[in-house]
Structure formats: structure tokens, C-alpha cells
Amino acid sequence: MPSHEVTPRYPDSRDILNKLRFLPGEGQIWLGEQRMLLMQLHTMATFRHEIIRTLGLKRAKSFFLRLGYHSGLKDAELARAVRGQEMSVEDGFLTGPQLHSLRGLVKVIPLALEIDPSRGHFYGEFEWQDSYEVAISEQLESSLGEPVCWMQLGYACAYSSQFLGQEIQYREVECRGRGDARCRIIGRPAHEWEDHATFAEHFREDPLIDELYELQSRIAYLEDDIARHKGDEHYRPIGQSPAFLGALDLIDRAARSEVPILLLGETGTGKEILAHRAHQQSDRAEGPFVAVNCAAIPPDLIESELFGVEKGAYTGAVQSRAGRFERADGGTLFLDELAELSPRAQAALLRALQEKQIERVGGQRSYTIDVRIVAATHGDLMERVQDGRFRADLFYRLNAYPVVIPPLRDRRDDIPLLAEHFLERFECHYHVKTLGFSDQAMALLRAHGWPGNIRELQNLIERGVILAGDGNSVSEQALFGQHPGHKAGQTLSESGHIGQASETGSDDLLSSLCDQVLEAEVSLDALEQALLEKAYREAGHNVSAAARRLGMSRAALDYRLKKRCML
């Protein structure tokens, strides 16, 4: 049996060094056919520390094991090219540790090496001296109580497995990063380790996106369930105008039937609240109410979000999970922004409505579902049908019972009721007690054109409560950002509606806003928190859309949201 049981020796390394090319004029470094990088140790230390804080210790360990694993795969290929067939398998194998040392990651000292390809036998034992992972661990981390040379361990596993054509696993049995005298690893065929299956899980991708969507869905369901049982005012339709009461009557008449309801109307008119009303008035009231904003979910994820996904259906689907249809079984599924569904999702939705069955993405099994559909859109579905962007058969299936929700400008008698409702809510949220609306503020609320409908009213009153503060009236200035007697950014027309003025007053408006914030003694931190929450919520929890509205990069907003635990 070919064997080197004690202190194997490295072959001459000049053939490796001949493959190393520095091209500073081109900004390139090459080792064989692989482009290399030089990077500061401190940069890697900061990166590692941030990954641990972001992902947690377990996910971070797996991340760096996989990073080293991919490097080891490439070096196994390079080792064969460098050493060819003229060397023994042991000498050729030792090319990997030499390459590992050449990169400045660690000095690898072979202690024992036994290889017998005919029997599938392998035993390798190596000492790591001056490991860079120990160095950065000492810089930025307290003792983790376990070995820390994750990237190097992943490299050893991948290199050995790829070079020998069988799965080899290593364990770091000693590590200076946890207080041992040295770093030492032992490698054997995977099946010889009792925990080989558990260890192999580290090398499977474990993306957070599916888990985050799952948690988001569960939170939304729990919030809806709590609100339903507590009679939360958030889901109580408010209004007494004839146009609104007419729409409400249509919804109540259809509530106890199984006909799909299609809510039509402008953005911000409160379609989700009315969908919840249909659910509460139905025989399914004790079942779940599940809402989906089709426009807020990326097109390539909408099918898995609606119908679920089986493990392995695509890269990153590491576990099977139910979709919104299954979670809404026995209750109501509200599909908001229906017009944004992709063609594939439209076809799957039509099948679900016709056959009352769904299939998870990547699955073969059909699931029977009992779901009542309430859909909503602000766009013209018939126009989309005519230009081919929306299936005609699905449209006629969902358009069986359309209900038009009137815009707020057609419900002017409801504005005081809604304004008082939002005032009470935000007073409670921000722990303040105002003196209510000034007469001029209420007159302007009634006169405004409300292109953003109820959502615009809600956001305007939230702003007014923040700027008014405790013990003050919510004034015209707090709501609309105007100097008394001067409507900066807006003008009251002869018809009584507020319209946009010229942009010449934009500087005055900004100055006015600053004055209001300072006079109300609102802290900068509180103002930023409220602004971020508002932009993020209005964007349907889409970070990119919220960032565009705030005029900053997505990365900058993502950092602020994470810092404030809003992501």
C-alpha cells in the first residue's frame, strides 16, 4: 500500500511558482489559468465579523466553509495541470497544501498521509501554523469556544474530495482560536465520520430569502388573526357618504356567497379593509384571512409564494413550504394588485379557481383547497385583456361580481370621520395627546383633491401629529407645511380644492418644515424613524422603491432599516 505515515515531504515548488504571474500594469495576478487577488487581512477580518453579526454563528460558519470549498475545487484542477501524471499520487496530492500556503492563508505542515485509491483508503493529518483565520479571530472576536479555521477546513474537504474522486471530510481537532496549543486537522473518507451527514449540511446553500418570506407570511397571518379576534379598528370600514355605503352594501350582499369579488378603484381607497369586511360577513369568518400584494413580490417568486414550493425545486429551495393558498384554506385569500400577476401565475390561478386544486412549484402532488377569492386592482383589467397582458378567461372568472370603490374626493362627508380616526390612532402610537384639528386645518382637509385617497390622508395626519406634538392643535401648517397666509407648494382654488402651485416656493417649504420640526421639539432621531417607517410602509416593504422615494441608494436605506431593526 503506498503510504507516507510520518512527515511526508513536499515536492519541489518551482513548477508552481512558474505558474504565478504578476501583471501590475494590467491590474492582474494569475496562478495558472486562475485570476487571483491580494487583499488586506483587516478587510477580511471586518467582513468575517459582519457576516457573523448578520447571519449568526451557525450560518456564518457554513458560509465560510462553502467559500473555502469552492477554492479547493479550483485548486484540485490546478494541481493536476501543474503536476501531471509523472508524480506519485501522494506527491501530486501535496500540491494543494503548497498552493494553500502560497496564498498566505496558512503554513501547512504534513504530519501523516496514507492514500490507497484501490481500496478507497485515505488518512491525512496536517498542522496549520499562523492561520490567518486565527489572526483575524484574535483581532475582532472573543473566543467562540470552537475551532475557527472554517474557510481552510472547507478548502481541505473540497480539494481532497475532488483530487481523489471520493468524498473526504476533515475535522479541526485542535485550534489556537479556541485556546489550543496548535491547529491540527485530520481527514478521512466521509463515511468513517459518525457525523458525516450533519457536517455535509454546511456545504448546502441555505439562503435567507425563503425563510424571510415564510416568517413574513406567518407574521401577517398572526396579525390578521389577532385583529380578527380582537375586533381591531384597523379593519372597520369608516364612512357614511352615499357612494361609500352603496359599495359597502354590495359587498355585504355577496359576502355569504362563494362568488369571487373584484374590487375596483384607485390606489389608497381602502380595498384591503373592504376585502376583510367581506371575509368577516361571510360563513368563513372563523377561517384565515390571507392578503397578498402581488406587486410587492418579485415575478420569479410569485408562484412559489402563492402555491408553495417543494424542496429542491430550484436553487435555494432548501425546504418544502406551503403557499398562501394552503394557508388560506377554509378562509379568504385577498389578491391585491391582481393586474401585476405574471402570465404563468395567471394560468396557475385560473386552474386553482376552476379545479379547486393547486400544485406546489417543483411538486407532482395536487392539493385540494377551499378558498374564497377577493381580488383588487387599480388598473383597467379590460384594457390589459385587450392588449394581451391579462388572460381573458381569468378576467371573466374574477369579474363575476365587480364592486367599484369610490375615491375619497367623492366622499367628502367622510373626511372628518376618517381624519378623527387616524388622529386617535397616531396619538396612541406616538404617545401624545393633541388638541384636535384647527378649524382651518379641517377646512383644508375637506377641500383637498386627495389624489392619494385614504392612504394620503392617513400619511398627512401622521405627519401632523408628529409636528403638532403633545398639547397642541394639529394646524394647517403641521398638515400641509405652509406659512400662515402663504400656501407654499399648494393653493386653495376658487372651487375650494387644493391644487399644486409653482415650484418657486420649494425653498420656503423646506425652511417651513425645518421651523415646524424645531418648534415642535421633535428630535432628529424620531423624525428619521417616522420618515423611514412611512416610506418603507408605503412602498409595500420594498426597500428599492422606498429608497427611490427618499432619494438615497438602496444600500444606504437597507443599512438604516437594519440599524433600527426594521428589517
Distance between the termini: 58 Å
Largest sheet: 5 strands, antiparallel
What order do the strands of the largest sheet run in, or round the barrel if closed?
Answer: 1-5-6-8-7
Mean pLDDT: 82
Rg calc: 32 Å
Q: Determine the fraction of residues in helical runs and give it as a percent range.
A: 40-55%
The tally of beta strands, per DSSP, is 17
Principal-axis shape: elongated
Poorly predicted runs are: 1-6, 483-505
Work out the helix count: 24
Task: Bin the strand percentage.
Answer: 5-15%
Q: Which helices and strands, and how do they pair?
A:
Blueprint: E1 3-4, H1 14-17, E2 20-23, E3 28-31, E4 34-36, H2 41-55, H3 57-83, H4 89-93, H5 95-102, E5 107-116, E6 121-129, H6 132-140, H7 150-164, E7 168-174, E8 183-189, H8 196-200, H9 208-230, H10 242-255, E9 261-264, H11 271-280, E10 289-293, H12 302-307, H13 324-327, E11 332-336, H14 343-355, E12 357-359, E13 366-368, E14 372-377, H15 381-386, H16 392-398, E15 401-404, H17 415-430, H18 439-447, H19 453-468, H20 476-480, E16 490-492, E17 498-500, H21 506-519, H22 524-538, H23 543-550, H24 554-563
Parallel strand pairs: 9-14, 9-15, 10-11, 11-14
Antiparallel strand pairs: 1-5, 2-3, 3-4, 5-6, 6-8, 7-8, 12-13, 16-17
Helix pairs in contact: 2-3, 2-6, 3-7, 10-11, 17-19, 22-23, 23-24
